[in-house]
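Thread: Porin, structure

OP (GT): Posting the sequence first so everyone is looking at the same thing. Length is 389 residues per the record. Can we get the structure tokens written out before standup tomorrow? I want them in the notebook alongside the other entries.
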Amino acid sequence: MKKFYSILAILFLLPVTFILAQEEQETQSEFSLSGSVDAYFRSNINAPNKGDAAQSPATSFGNLPGFSLGMANIIATYEGEKVGFVADLVFGPRGEDAVFGSPLYAGGMAGSSQIINQLYMYYNASDAVTFTLGNFNTYLGYEVISPTGNFNYSTSYMFSYGPFSHTGLKADFQLSDNWSLMASVMNPTDMTELNFYGSYTLGGQLAYTTDAGGTYLNLLYGDQDGKLEMNTLSSFGPSSMGNTFQIDLTAGYDLTESLYLGLNTTYNTTAAGQMYNGSAIQDATGDGYGFYGVAGYLQYATSDKFSLGARGEYFKVFNDGLDGVVGLDGVGDGRVLAGTLSGNIKITDNFTIIPEVRADLMSSNFFINNDFQSTKNLASFLVAGVFSF
């Protein structure tokens, strides 16, 4: 913990040093509103669609049956010469899923914080250094929460079980025209309103970007649920996880004016933590658990109005890391191959129709087919509408 607090103190003192070293300058500011709305229709091809028997991949968003709502997203942005802020609000099922860890301050019930997707302010200390404080969407992974930032409407397993958001302090350094570095100290993952556990997570990113695209190496390390103490057992329960480590590589480049290739690979592991045996706290036995995977993204624009894109993903869970996400074998391991084919039809510059077909194939039985028999595969399709402003 001393290391965490030392790093936290340094990150807070650095912007103060920059402020004292610079003269005040006249600023020009700009306030703007932007956002999006989305809705969709989804149906299974080989599985039930109604009642408790309705089937869907255990991935985030886009998995409700029939005509369904996504979210309304309203983003207020203030951009000054030196300082600015972003207030990003979400409403609807997709928004609630995105901020699932937020309503802690309301005692576990829905509160006003449950509509906050992002809420941060930033300070441009120089042309090369920016400090950000508050709640911001994750820097890990290829996909994002807003449907306007994804080609495919449904999401991958790696995105769904990586972090969504962080609250903390980060520093971005522009090392050169092509290289940049980010370092951060944050609350436990997705704990966006406050720090309930008293532990902190470190984050980092090294990026190389060109006019054609970029490559990003992302790191995350920290305790996500605190250490057990005898006087907090009633609040925190009889066990806790060990430290979580995730390394993630994301890349995407325009190969030609019409052809784009993207890649995401990630590895996430959580060590065995602690447990209360009825009389004392002891280290838990056994191996850690987690997941890893790789996904490729290929998109081809046939015209200004239509593009076709495919996503292929391999996702592996080990040691009961994500029970209920994929079919597991007797030792707690499970795998899934998922393929998604999506079209992007531009009705106007800010309105897109996304028809999509998807197939998920598990290594063990996980789904139920139309005959109500256990099966390893699920085929589905959807049509989404996404409007941005």
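GT: Both are above now. Quick notes for whoever picks this up: The first helix runs from residue 2 to 21. The chain has four helices and 21 strands.
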